[in-house]
Design brief:
One of its GO terms (biological process) is protein N-linked glycosylation. The chain is of the alpha/beta class. The chain is built from 10 helices and 9 strands. It has a single domain (about 50-325), classed as Spore Coat Polysaccharide Biosynthesis Protein SpsA, Chain A. The strands form 2 sheets. It has a 7-stranded mixed beta sheet, sandwiched between helices. It is elongated and about 105 Å long.
Length: about 325
Amino acid sequence: EERGLVDFIFACWRAFRMLLLTLLALIVLLLSAVSFVCYQILKDREGDYIHESYSFVDPRSNETRPFESISDAPSKYLSVVIPAYNEEERISVMLDETIAYLQGRQQVDPDFTWEMVIVDDGSRDNTVQLVQQQYVTKFGVDLIRVNKLKKNVGKGGAVRRGVLVSRGKYILMADADGATRFSDFIKLETCMHNIEKNDMGVVVGSRAQYHDNVDSDAERRPWYRNISHIVFALLVDNLCVKGVKDTQCGFKLFSREAALELFLSLHIERWAFDVEVLYVAQRKKMPIGEEIVHWEEIDGSHLSVIGASLQMFKDILRVPLLYRLGYWKFFRN
């Protein structure tokens, strides 16, 4: 009986030791996971490459010339900032449509001066060569300039670098795929004139009518993209940006003063940068308008749905948390 008792105690000790080791391993694993998540949330931009791109090349003279700064007085009415990554196959259609609209407006109204800033986000194809040869050479660098980044920094980083070298009183960001009908700019412009106060204003193009009607010919997306959109929209509305139906449309208009304060505050450089821009705009109590625009799905997207979704969900947690903790600061002009 005594030996049986010893064996029983020894077995209990082994079981307890195994349970203790398992609990310790789980605690270490949990702490590691929490540390990793905290690191991912807290880490800032991985290097700021903006200083490499303050110059552009004039293909007519082959000279390198400096960009102006958004802190300078505006010398154009409108700047159109177009981020582009491996867009050799799609960008020509968008540029042709955009230039035709801008030239038409200027013929009617000579005060409607404009420029386009195409920001090449480290493309590996011939996007830069195509734009330089077919557009910049033809129209000149006073109208079209290419801001070529050496490294891919993400859509938000590319837009930021384009905005900060713009010359326009108003700055429009537009996607290189031409998914939004460019002539809808006039809707955003009209809204801007109605809401702008103290030179501050932001107008968001909205595809809400397509998201509300999932059977629309323009919005036939895979089911998982529709689900991710719904979840993302709910999180954004509850955590970051209230009352904006479509934060992610790539068609947004900013007054120059608003763009200066918003994009010098920007930390998110990937797909969720729009959320941070609108979050800061609301925190600064800038007037924000939203206008329905015509939009259609364009084939050839470089977006990795799973990877981008994970990055975006992480970023929308970072935005309210890090600003409220004071880890990220608001830029004040």
